[in-house]
Design brief:
It comes from Caenimonas aquaedulcis. The chain has a single domain, classed as NADP-dependent oxidoreductase domain (TIM Barrel). Helix content is 36%, strand content 15%. The protein contains nine helices and ten strands. The strands form two sheets. The chain has an eight-stranded parallel beta sheet. Strands 1-2 form a two-stranded antiparallel sheet. Helix 1 links the parallel strand 3 and strand 4. Helix 1 crosses helix 2 and helix 1 packs parallel to helix 9.
Length: 271
């Protein structure tokens, strides 16, 4: 799998990760845990490391943390989770629960989820980063309606990471957010690269275009992921999945050729 640098440190990060929204919220269904463990196995086998979660995602943190502990794979993972509440003390309490769920003394990336009370939490995160409790800090959102506020925060704050949505159907991030992240030296995690699954559902019945094979794509998943990665400001894409087969398929998009942005001109018309 290809790697890209985190601008604030130069450390390399694999370009495909795994999101846990919905797919890992199976704490009350133990029979589904083994497949989630296989998802993480496929991520690691392919050279990926990033696992993104949040307290908002139900039991996803507990499930992923337990699976990592059982497999002895904690050191293979780049854990990215979030704080999603208001108030300093509530935020600290929530993040401490996340540490417990992940069975971790240190979390690689802590993000302010959907910009909720971001000024308060960024202050805490800077303190925790200085103490070594977290490696990186950032903010997230998932919808274009929040881009103006997200841009304001990106301009005002020194962030290691920013996370937002980007796909062939939602390209507004190309206009300001992706160039700004590159300008400000912020790593970018991309969520919803399949348009919350709507793009895959729409394209599934269509044959792959003849140019897909030469760039190493044998599925629409891989086409959509390579499109996102063709923007050099993107550091890592985190498609969510509960299927080991899908994780393996997604991860392959991070290997081989990633075409430049110019490659896509005219190729997305009519898709």
């Amino acid at each position: 799998m290809q790697m890209r640098p985190i601008p604030s440190t130069g450390a390399a990060l694999p370009v495909i990760g795994c999101g846990t929204w919905l797919g890992f919220d199976v704490g009350g269904s133990p029979a589904e845990w083994p497949e989630r463990g296989r998802v993480l196995d496929e991520l690691f086998k392919a050279g990926g490391t990033v696992i993104d979660s949040s307290p908002m995602y139900g039991t996803a943190e507990q499930v992923a943390g337990s699976l990592l502990e059982r497999a002895g794979d904690r050191d293979k993972a780049f854990i990215a989770t979030k704080v999603w509440t208001s108030g300093r003390e509530a935020g600290i309490a929530q993040m401490e629960r996340s540490f417990a769920h992940w069975r971790a003394r240190r979390i690689d990336l802590m993000q302010v989820h959907n910009l909720v009370d971001w000024k308060t939490h960024l202050s805490t995160l800077r303190e925790w980063k200085a103490l070594g409790r977290i490696g990186y800090l950032g903010v997230t959102h998932y919808t274009e309606s929040a881009y103006a506020e997200l841009e304001t925060v990106m301009r005002a704050e020194p962030l290691d990471f920013v996370q937002f949505n980007y796909s062939i159907a939602h390209r507004q991030a190309e206009q300001r957010l992706l160039p700004l992240a590159a300008e400000r030296g912020m790593a970018v995690l991309v969520n919803l690269p399949f348009g919350a699954g709507k793009e895959l559902a729409r394209l599934r019945s269509k044959p792959l275009p003849p140019w897909a094979g030469p760039i190493g794509c044998w599925s629409w998943n891989q086409v959509l992921l390579k499109f996102v990665l063709s923007n050099p400001a993107v550091t890592c894409v985190i498609p969510g999945t509960s299927s080991a087969d899908h994780m393996r398929e997604n991860a392959m998009a991070g290997a081989g050729e990633i075409p430049p942005r110019e490659f896509w001109k005219g190729k997305l018309d009519g898709l």
